[in-house]
Every structure is written in C-alpha cells, then in structure tokens.
Amino acid sequence: MGIIITTVLVIALIVYWIFEYRIHQSRLSRIPIRVHINGSRGKSSVTRLIGAALRKTDKTVVTKTTGTDARIIHPDGAEEPINRIGPANVLEQKWVVKYAVKLGADILVTECMAVDPELQWVLQNKYIKGTIGVLTNVRPDHLDVMGPTVRDAADAMSAIMPRGGICFTGERERFDWLKENAEKIDCKLILTDPETISDDEINKFGYIEHKENVALALAVARHFGVERQAALEAMWNATPDPGVLKIFSFVERNQRIRFANAFAANDPESTIIVWEMLSSRLEKDEKIVAIANSRADRIQRSLQLGEFMGQKIPADLYILVGANLPAIADVMVENGIPREKIMFVANGDPQKILDITLKLDGNKKFLVGIGNIGGPGHKIADFFEEKNQSRENQNAKSS
Fold this sequence. Notes:
Elements: H1 2-29, E1 33-38, H2 43-54, E2 61-65, E3 71-73, E4 79-81, H3 92-102, E5 107-111, H4 117-128, E6 132-135, H5 143-146, H6 150-157, E7 166-169, H7 175-184, E8 188-191, H8 199-202, H9 211-223, H10 228-237, E9 247-252, E10 255-261, H11 268-279, E11 287-294, H12 299-312, E12 317-322, H13 325-334, E13 342-344, H14 350-358, E14 364-370, H15 376-398
Parallel strand pairs: 1-5, 1-6, 2-5, 6-7, 7-8, 10-14, 11-12, 11-14, 12-13
Antiparallel strand pairs: 2-3, 3-4, 9-10
Helix pairs in contact: 2-9, 2-10, 4-6, 9-10, 12-13
C-alpha cells in the first residue's frame, strides 16, 4: 500500500511540474523581447542602463536586477524591492516572468542570477529564454564554482547567448573565446567599444560609471531603434544600483573625508580597474586609507586580496574588516606592506574606522572600500553615505 501511495504522489508531482512548466512557457510567449544579461562585473548597472534606455521605446519595459539588492523596476521607472525568504533561488525568475506579464511587459530586461554553470544554462534555456544576450565581461571570479580556469568561466557565462540570435559584449581581452562559443550556436556576437563614449558623456552620470557599461547599453538601445541622445538622457536620469561606485564627501573635526564605495568590485581585475579610475581623482595631499572587507567563506579570495593590496594598492593605512584578518595581514607583509600600517576592525564598526582615519596626519583623507560588499561592507557604505547626506542637507538649509 505504501508503495502505491508513493507512486501516486510521485506521478502527481511530475504532472504538477509539467503543468507549471507549460504555464511558465505560456507566460514567456507573452513577453516577445527578453534581454538576458550576464558577466563577472557590471551586470546590475548594465541591466538598469538598458532598462532605462528601452523605456524610450513605445513598448512596456519591466526590469529586474539581482545585484546588491534585488529590485523590480516598473515601466514608469518606479522600483519595488524583492523580499526573499531565505537565500536567492533561481526559481525567483518564474515569479519575475509572472509579474512582468501582470505589468503588461513587451520587454523584460533581467540579470542572470546564477553562478553554477548548469543553473546558468537552465535559466537561459528554460526560465528566461532570452531573445537578446548581453555579456558584460569575463573576469577571474567565482572560479571555485565556474572554474578552475577563466576559460571555464567564459564558457559558463556564454550560456545566455541565444541560439540563432544576437549577443552584445564588452569583453575585449577574451573576445575570441566568446566568439567560438557564439559560432557553435549560430549566435551573432557584437563587441562594443568604450572609446565611443566621451568624457563629457560619462561625467554627466551622478556617480562613477564605466564607459564599457554605457557602450553596451547604447548598443542594445540602438538595436531597438532608440536614438543615442535619448538613450543617454534616460541613463543619466535613471536610479543607479545601490552598490554603484560613488564618492561621498563630508567634513569631520575640521578634516575633509572622502569615501569611495568600491566594495562591489570583488575580484582583482575589477578592483584594479576601479582603483585606476579613482587614482585620477586623488589630490596630492590626501592620505589614502584602504578598507578591505573579507568573508569567512572566501578564504582563497581573502588571501588573494592581501597579495593584491601589497602589489597594487599603495595606501597610507590599511584597515581590515570581516574574517581571516591575521592570514590576510601575513600575506600583505610578505608582499612589502609594513605591519604597522595594518589595523584590524573585525566587526567593521564604521565610527571606529573613521576615528582611526582622523588620527592620521593631514586634514584630507581618501578612504576606499574594497573586497566585498557583504557583511560589514553594507554598514560601512551606509555610514559614509549618511554622513554625505547630512552634509548635503545642511548645505541645502544654509542656502
């Protein structure tokens, strides 16, 4: 009797899954254009930029980001947070499609939310079936899941390329790998050029945006017939991702403090790109403080971070927060950083970090948050943003 009941339950479950899958496919068919965005860095920013630009078409556009904080962006640009029970799950995309249909979407712009190669394939071929692919870049990140090599990661992220369709990418260094993957499925791969974005155009963003991201978004917008100026204006006015690179500024105890939130660039290649961008904004007499946040479950990346700081990040002080701090410090010392320049604030207390910074000589300090946005990263970034906001509010009142 038990075997019969079990068999019936299994059959019922299979029938239910088939029924649910067919309903999902029916919903997908009601959204004729689906832009699926993947890559090591910049997915959330590019998703938002493309969504904003495509709202300049005569079509109804729904955008979904996973990023620092998952969001649904409505056709009018209004945002709605996605409240999760437990960790992120790719099944969330089924609900996203259902909700997009409810909102009357003609276009769904969504960020790939999987790291596991098999799940990336499932998202493209079963859940989203993107008609347009966008692959921002390929960096040596998440190699513990997609690796062991960067080529493996490139192959995994190529899953969002639509068979017989079009994919846009900003990845120049590893373009040949991506092109090989695209040719296997008769996908036209288009390489975009950041040099087509002028300094004036990039400086009109209210935060530090990458030319690579803007070039990608403009290429997709052009594909859908949106004029360049209209697309740019839409992107300039769009709400950026919460984890976007910004510089906050305020005065504390007669010292000018600037803080750059670069926590989201959590692999060496991305961090050095951000560091080079920030270096051009440094002033001669500013003291540099690197705040490095590491996660307990990313031991290898933490040690990599220590080596990277020793070789690439010249700072007057290094404040380590999060986990694995003694091991990171040892690697930093091995790479030439004096131990007296390294301090631990394991819990990431932002006020303590600020107090330590204020004790440095000079009255101008430039702090850079790197490593990871998780855990203490969020509260550190929020703290300095609130300080910046308080300054802006005071200036508004005085004017």
